[in-house]
Every structure is written in C-alpha cells, then in structure tokens.
Write a structure and sequence with these properties.
This protein is α+β, with helices and mostly antiparallel strands and 508 residues long. Helices cover 28% and strands 12% of the residues.
Amino acid sequence: MSGRRPAAVVTGTVRPGWEGVRDAFARGQAEDPGGAQLAVRHGGRTVVDLWTPGTGRFGYGAVPDGAAGAGGAYVAQSAGGTTRAGSTHGADGTAGAGGEAGTGGAAATGGVPGAATEHARRTEAGAGGDAETGYRNGHRTGDGSATGTESGTGSGTATGGQALRADSVGVLMSVSKALVAVCAHLLIERGVLDPDDPVARHWPEFAAAGKAGTTVADLLAHRAGLPAYTDDPAGLPDALLLDPAARVRALAAMSPVWDPETAFLYHALTYGDLVGEVVRRVSGGSVGRFFAREVAGPLGLDLWIGLPEGAEHRFVPQRAVRPGPTPGQVARAVERAGLAPGDRLATSLRASSAELARATASFGTRRGRAAEFPAAGGIGDARSLARLYAALVGPVDGVRLLSAATVDRAMTPCTDHLPQPGVLHRLDGPDRSRFGLGFELPRPGAPLLGEGSFGHAGAGGRLGMAHPESGLAVGYVCTAMAWEPSAGPDPRWMPWTEAVRKAAGLGG
C-alpha cells in the first residue's frame, strides 16, 4: 500500500497533448465532496472538456440548495500569516468562512485552521446519485474535433442527490461579475458608453447624495464607495433585496462611504446592480436580457443571468463544507479590524455580509435562480465559460466579442495605486485583490493563468479566465463551496492550472 489517495472519477475528453490536464484535474478533485467541470480552449478550439461527480462526502456544516455560507464580510482573510480585514473578496464568502480569521488563517468555524475541511473529508453524508463510469475512445467534442482516449471507473455519491454531468449547470457566484463586465465593454466598444462618463449621464437619479462625479470606471473597478445597499447593519430587507428595482433605488439614494478617487473595496453584491443599471439605461433592457441577446445567443452559451424555467432540470445545487459566519462573528471581526461599531464603513461591511448571505440562500429556490442578481447569481457550465472567455481574446466559430484594444483596456490595473478605505489600509498586504475594468487581475491568492491573464473567481472556487497572448481560455465550475482564500489559491485549481500552462507552452 502506497498510501496515495485515489484519483477522482473523471469523464470527458481531451485532445492529444493535453492528457496531463485530465490527470491533474483528477488529482485536484480527489477529495472534493462536490462535483466539478473543467473546460479549456486554446486558439479558439476545445482541448479539454471534463467533469467529475465528486465523492459526496459532505459532512460538517453541509447545507443543501444554495445556502452555502457565502455571507462573510470583507474581513478576516489571512495573508502572509496575519489577519487581513477589508479583504476585497471577503464579502463574496471567500474569507475563510467569513469574518473570524485569526493569524495564519484560522477561520470562525471553531478557530482551528482546516478543521472543518478535514471533518468534511472524514464524514459520510449519504448524498445519493451515481457517478458516471465508462471508457471513451475517439469521442467527439462539440466543435467536431476528435479527442484522445478517456477512461474512468468506479462509483460515488454526488452533491444534493444529483450527479454533476456533462450538461449540468450551477451557480457561478462572483464569476458572474465578468458576464456583467462583458456587457459594459460591448457598449463601450460600440461608442455608446465611455468609462470616463459620469454615471449620472446615463442614470440621472444616481447623482443624488454626492455621487455626481462618480464615473462608470469607478463602478467597474469597485471604487464607487457603495459596498452595501443600506447603512443598516442587518442589510436590505428580503422584500426589497429580491426586487431589482428596489435595489437600484436604494443605490441611487445612498451617499458614498468613501470618495471614489481615494480608495477601493470589493462590491460583492452591489457591483451587479450598479453596472447592470448603466447597461439597462444605455441598452434599454436589463443586463440579463442584454447578455442573452448579445453574448449568449450569438455564441450558443448555456450561461444566464436569470435561469430560464426550461433549464431548471439541469441545475445542480451548491453545498457548503463549513458553516457561514453568524452576524455576531462578522461584527466582532469588523471591530477587530479597528472599526468602531458605529463607523459607517463598519455598518456597510456588516450589511454587505448579511445581504450576500440571503441572496446566496435564495439561489436554492426557483425564485432566486430566475431573478437577476448580476453580481453573483449567474448560472451556467464550465464549457460555456471557456467559450465566452475564448471569444474575448479571439474568434470562436466566427464570433469575437471584443477587440484586442478593448481587452487591453479592460485589463489595465485600476486599483493598484489605491488603498482600501479608512483604517483598512493598514491591513493591505501583497495578496490584496487587483482589478481592471470589471475583471480581476492575477495575485498570489488567485493567480489565474499568470501574468498577462485576466478573469474572475467566485465564492467556493468557481473560476473563469483567459490569457490573451497564448489564446488560453478556461472555465471551472464546482458545487462544493470549499475555497478558503485565507489559505491561498484553491488546492483544487493548482494541479490542473500548472498542467494547462505546461500543455500550452507557458511552463509549469
């Protein structure tokens, strides 16, 4: 007995020369209780299309149907062994279970780093569903290209009683923000929108409460100073949170928590309504409808901002591997960051955490999936994410979404020169988030495809990204909310990311 853990059951196809990605994906998913899909395009063509149903071993804190503990504040992400408050990813639920991290990344699930994850690995959670098995040789991908031999044996249980399959779709969380950014950049490229436009030029009501000078670029780069919909630490009430028009009205009435020219901080949920309302005012339709008509339709994507009823049978829910933070834990983490309880930034962080937790829980319902939550509620599969990113950096079946010049502008760093607001600037570290115009840029905790790449990660470990110079485009969708950025990149990403880079000639 070597003691080596078995590889995951993987089904799908790879082109010759990319077999190492299949093996690396299997290693990365070996202990993942949830299912996952990985799709890679290179030079516009599909080279990897894989999926695995997962082990099904959900245990500690398992929560069905989307209530996946994604309510962490922008606090308590550990970087370099010290607690970080003001993490630009924290409110996306990616802050080490949200808000109570100690030094070295100990999260508020009992205070012991990794304890919840280890418990989840060791606990069986009867979650039904058969894993796909089989042997495939010469299978053809959707673009008609033959692939190499694929094999997979064994069986296993899958998330939520549903096996993740080739045509399954799931919640994308903040990977959705890239979908919204694409819509904005299409309008910019067409000359009907400019990043330097005052938002109020297109959305007059937004000028209220000192926001007349806020620009479209401020919205895209998380500089607007509007990380929550309300100053109530409990967040916007459910009746208003599930009403897109009410969310937009709340943002128009809010005054910024900081001057957009002085700081930035991740707008976990409000980003989608801020940028989405500009898209609506310019295009005449909601951002979800615009995306469906101008992006998903021409490319044939199974990707939506607002899941149509006809696709419900393909939906596989996300589940947590650890519980989300309580409001009290978030409040204490905010206070430990040096913010007084009555400080406006403190209440905004707490409100954002509460709002995101409730929005995420709604994705476990038909109403929540059908609603447009543009910042976090996108739904789709890895294959469509890879196809979308491929069409941003080159033609896909004759369709290219954005010019090279537009992509270069979208990748220009827009926050590297800015601190986080208030006392949070004291906690800035080398792994703080980096933003271009609507997309994330590489950093140690989310390296994407290395320098020269762009994309967006999402709570729990979802990922979409591209490397324009090499023509690489990648989509990764998972159902287990497992990523702990306080500990660095998602361990599930690392084996296949290295293999993808190597196969594309970028080095390991």
